[in-house]
Amino acid sequence: MQKGQGLGFKRQQIELEPCPTCKGKAVVKGLFYELICTACNGSGWVIRGSRLVLSSEELVTQLSFKLQQAQREIEVLQQGSSISGPAEYYQQNNRRGAGGTNFTGD
Hints:
two-stranded antiparallel ribbon
């Protein structure tokens, strides 16, 4: 038996897209009330391209992947707002209070 890559042990991220039937809302408008979307089983997400429905266990895992990715992007955006050079001086507070000027030499 050869050593493999361990494909069965690691979950792969599946590209998801909002359900085209309910547009990601998980419900569709019925005649008198809203019904659970049958195209996505009420999740609002389908597999990109094939539009197949995920099982609930797999959907939880994939949404967790998407949440982790979004949290990493938020952290990068919060840390990446460092401005340097003349732009930093221009953006800082002039500490002169209300009615003070903000002359920056332009």
